[in-house]
Structure formats: C-alpha cells, structure tokens
Amino acid sequence: MSILKDTDPTSSILDEVLFNRMLSVERKRSERTGAHFLLVLIDFGRLARAQLGGTLEKIGMALAVSTRETDITGWHRDKIALGVIFTALNGTSRQETRAAISGKIQKLLSESLVPADVQGTEISFHFFPEKEEDGGNQVESGRILYADRDSEQISKKFFSIVKRIIDVSVSAIALAFLSPLFVLIAIAVKKSSAGPVFFRQRRLGKHGVEFTFLKFRSMYAANDSRIHQEFTANLINGKSNGANGVYKMLKDPRSTPLGSFLRASSLDELPQLLNVLGGSMSLVGPRPPIPYEFECYQLWHRRRILEAKPGITGLWQVNGRSRTTFDEMVRVDLQYIKEQCLWTDIKILIKTPLAVISGHGAY
Fold it and tell me: CATH 3.30.70.270 residue ranges in the chain?
C-alpha cells in the first residue's frame, strides 16, 4: 500500500479558494473520465484554535511532506479544515485506502497535538464516484466536493463585469464588421476539401467546465487525432522537437493547403468571437486546453484554467507566441491571472493585430 509515503513536497499548502477550485476540477474530471479520487478532510472545528498557534500550519506541511506529487493538500476551510485530494488510487480498494490513510494521519496528529485534541479532530473520507453503500449524507458530500467558493473582492467582481461588457460589445461589433470575410472564408473552406465549414471541439474553460470551441476547419475531415495527442504529450513533458507553437505542429500532415494559410494568419480563430459572445470565452485570457491535454498537466499547470476565463488572445501570444516552451507559456498565463486588469487587457488587444501581421511565432 503506497497511497502515503515520505517524499519532499513540490508545492505549499493551497489556500481555501484555490484548493476548492482544484477539488471541483477533479470531480468534473472524474465524471468525464471515470477516474476515481478521494477527498480526506481533517476538521479542527471543535478545538480551541486560538491555543494552537501555528500548529495547524505545521500539520498541513507534514501532510504535504507525506503525500505524493500527484496529491493536493490545502485548506478546505481556512484554519478550520485541512483537505487532501488523492488523485491516483491505483486500483487499491476503498477499505485498504481508508485504513492506510487513517493510520498515517492519526500518527501525524499525535505528533503535533495533545491526546484530547487528537480525539476532538474529525477525519472524514469522501470517495468519488460515490456508492450507496458508502453511507452518510450524499447530498452533503456532493456539496463538499462541489465547493466552488467565490471569495473575490469587490474590485475583482467589478473587473469581471466590465470585462464582460467589453467582450460582448467588441465581439458583436467585430462579428458584424467581419461578416463578409466570414462568408468568403466559409466558401473557401467548403470548396477546398470535403467536410464542414466549422471545426468543433470540446475544450476546458474556467474551473474546468467543458464547452464547444469553434474554429474554421483547417484540416481534412478524416484525420487521426492521435498525432496531436502524442505531440501534445511530448510538448508538455518537454520532449517536443520542431514545434511551431504551443498548440500547433510544424507541417501538420492533417492540414489542408488553405488550412495552413488560415492557421498561419490566425484567420481560423475568428469563429471564437461566437464563443466570446456566448460567454464561454473572453477576448483575453489563457488558451483553453483539450481534455486530453489537461490529463498530461502537472499540478501547477492546472492553475491556468482555474482563475480566468479562456481567451482568444493572451499575454504569451503577444510576447513570444511559439517562441516559448510550454512551461514558460504556463508561467506567463499565471502572471496574467495574478495581475489581470483592464489596462493589461487593452494593451494585449492592441498588440494582438501587430503580432498576427508580423507572423512572429505564428501558431
């Protein structure tokens, strides 16, 4: 049994907002793929927390040290309940998993708390997918697992409202102005090869919510997606050779001659204005990943889909585009998420046409 083992932690304890968003993403991923995961909650609510000082933080760090790189430790409720998400159970039975983890946590608690406080600490196990025989209040369990808590400040809420107003206004005007170009591209795509005008694909938006991503079709209708899946896995793992972009391949054999031009000029991206108008995307934000890309992400990569709505353009597109590695692109996305404001969005929107026209690092 190796659910818990002693290794060096690769990240600190997540704060309440980020941990609960990660929890929501893991449940949606489990629903989509059928992969099992476990949430363990350690509730200190009955204890006199004023007397514990930094003890809870020490316990949290001890948990982070004792869990694997694939597991996620954070505050489910700040300074009240710690949580650990075990994302890879490796086929171990629920009974064995519960016994192994419970024993390890009890040992960690006994090393930091007096016996009375250990007894007053509640440890609960929430397996997913849930089974009737698990017992307990499944409605309450579901509420815990879907804990999408929004603690944004008023300034952030104001930013979100104004950003949405800009998205709707600009996308509506752009669609009206570019409608003749849409018609010309649609005719060209239809005549260039058999297949639909639009390419539709499932992508992951903010908080891991799936939506239908639109582009002008740039590939032959009959193609093997495994080519891109292998390319993506190698790219994320830093093993890609000859990449011409974070999401595109150099001389992609699936592309039509017209499609290669549309992709190099970014004209294939124009239908995403419909995504923006519908609310699943924004004009500015991180690029939305395909579900199989997300499966290859390291834990820190996943933050790029938690904090912001995906966008047509973004900070990395105008500051390097394909001239960055995948890890560098994620770092740029996280920088944008941390510092996002209206002025940053305006500067990115102004720089985007220049980046497209120059073709510098076209993807």
Answer: 16-145
Q: Is pLDDT above 80 for 15?
A: yes
Q: Residue 51 has what pLDDT?
A: 58
Tell me the whole-structure pTM to 2 decimals: 0.64
The CATH architecture assigned to 16-145 reads 2-Layer Sandwich (3.30)
Q: What is the pLDDT of residues 245-278, one digit of tens each?
A: 555 666 677 888 898 899 888 899 999 999 999 9
3-class SS string, the chain: CCCCCCCCCCCCCECHHHHHHHHHHHHHHHHHHCCCEEEEEEECCCCCHHHCCCHHHHHHHHHHHHCCCCCEEEEEECCCEEEEEECCCCCCCHHHHHHHHHHHHHHHHHHHCCHHHHHHCEEEEEEECCCHHHCCCHHHHHHHHCCCCCCCCHHHHHHHHHHHHHHHHHHHHHHHHHHHHHHHHHHHHHHHCCCCCEEEEEEECHHHCEEEEEEECCECCCCCCHHHHHHHHHHHCCCCCCECCCCCECCCCCECHHHHHHHHHCHHHCCHHHHHHHCCCEEECCCCCCHHHHCCCCHHHHHHHCCCCCEEECHHHHCCHHHCCHHHHHHHHHHHHHHCCHHHHHHHHHHHHHHHHHCCCCC
